[in-house]
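Students often ask why we bother encoding 3D structure as a string. The short answer is that it lets us treat folding as translation between two languages. Here is a chain of 92 residues written in the first language.
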Amino acid sequence: MNERQNRSGAADFTNTQTFSIADDRDAEVRRIINAVYAALVEKGYNPINQMVGYLLSEDPTYITNYKNARSLIRKVERDELLSCIIKYYLGI
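And here it is in the second language, the structure alphabet:
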């Protein structure tokens, strides 16, 4: 008997199942931010300054091509990056 069945074996539709794509997407955005941060550190850049420059200008040249960091960061819209950063900062 799986958890979607009641004791008689019939499907149990009394409880609402929840599914969140947002949590998965936030985790992916955090993974990208961490990968870009690591690439910038390895190349000797100040990663905070470089990422702030990118967020303010959307100029991809603030992000190194090393380890595909520029391509990674461009997969995420700036508003989504900022939203994820703010949610993480606020602990929500």
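Translate back mentally: The mean pLDDT is 88. Keep this in mind for the problem set.
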